[in-house]
Design a protein that fits this description.
By secondary structure, this protein is of the alpha+beta class. It contains two helices and 13 strands; from the N terminus they run βαββαββββββββββ. Strands 1-9-6-11-4-3-2 form a seven-stranded antiparallel beta sheet.
């Protein structure tokens, strides 16, 4: 054998962030969200209002999400700019319904909030490494998947969980195999503050 030694090192890492905001959502707010008018959204249902965090009834929820975004900007991205919610909407998956694979345009981070009790099983969120057609699909053996080669990752949500992830990531929701409704809130974010440098003529105020 001619190979004397070899090493594998991570070049980039794609994080997701999980926080729990139990206590920020009251039973009356849960009922308010469940009572929002819903419309068809391909497979599942989406709220007609796509700015639900602007509703006065959900102020404490919006404040809790802002705290989560502040932690992410400060401790994960380590940026001086502020992250803020742009659009926010409610989603419902009926029995046997999931959500198609998609990513979010015009957004830095996207998020999911599981504001009420989840069905059992809760149906996982599935993230896909590739964002485009794979002409040659070199998939690893299932038993040998790791952080370097896996094509997908699953996360299982719990009540009061907030997930943050890069908006460019393709993600989907597995079909709801329970007899209960699966409720969640989704949201997009953008940055506020100054980017670039004045003297480099790259400054952009947002």
């Amino acid at each position: 054998m001619t190979v004397v030694s070899h090493e594998v090192h991570p070049l980039f890492v794609e994080p997701y962030f999980r926080a729990n905001i139990a206590g920020a959502i009251s039973p009356s707010q849960i009922e308010f969200i469940k009572g929002l008018k819903m419309v068809n959204n391909m497979e599942n249902l989406i709220s007609e209002n796509l700015y639900i965090f602007e509703e006065p009834e959900l102020k404490s929820v919006k404040d809790a999400i802002r705290d989560v975004l502040d932690i992410y900007a400060r401790d994960v991205m380590c940026i001086p700019q502020e992250l803020y919610v742009t659009q926010s909407w409610s989603l419902t998956c009926n029995p046997n319904v999931g959500m198609h694979g998609h990513s979010h345009s015009n957004s830095v981070l996207s998020g999911s909030l599981y504001y009420c009790e989840l069905p059992s099983p809760p149906a996982s969120m599935v993230f896909t490494r590739h964002s485009s057609y794979q002409q040659i699909d070199l998939a690893p053996e299932a038993s040998k998947r790791n952080i370097y080669n896996t094509p997908i990752n699953r996360i299982i949500p719990k009540q009061d969980d907030v997930f943050l992830f890069s908006s460019r990531l393709t993600h989907m929701v597995e079909p709801n195999t329970s007899s209960q409704l699966r409720h969640s809130i989704a949201f997009n974010t953008f940055v506020k503050g100054k980017l670039g440098n004045y003297r480099d003529v790259s400054e952009l105020a947002l």
